[in-house]
Specification:
- By secondary structure, the chain is mainly alpha-helical.
- The protein has one domain.
- Helix content is about 35%, strand content about 5%.
- It has three helices and two strands.
- It has a two-stranded antiparallel ribbon.
- Strand 1 and strand 2 form a beta hairpin.
- Helix 1 packs across helix 3.
- The radius of gyration is 13 Å and the shape is globular.
């Protein structure tokens, strides 16, 4: 069965964090990630947040949390 890939901008409310994601980020590391994304916004075009057909994140949970915490509305 062929896999299809589509890149699009969606409201962050449509995306769900992956509850099975083993990675966690808090405190100073989260603040550094937020600062990094704000100073280099092109990174989000270079490394998109990857979701499955149910809009659950497969890759990019920490970037998603950082964007959400910084007040972003779309990805």
């Amino acid at each position: 069965m062929p896999v299809t890939t589509e890149i699009k901008t969606v409201k962050m409310t449509q995306i769900t964090l992956n509850p099975d994601n083993p990675r966690r980020i808090t405190g100073a590391k989260m603040d550094l990630l937020i600062k990094s994304l704000q100073s280099f916004p092109e990174m989000m075009q270079l490394r998109e947040i990857v979701v499955d057909e149910t809009m659950t994140i497969l890759g990019g949970n920490m970037r998603f949390l950082a964007m959400k915490k910084s007040g972003a509305k779309e990805k």
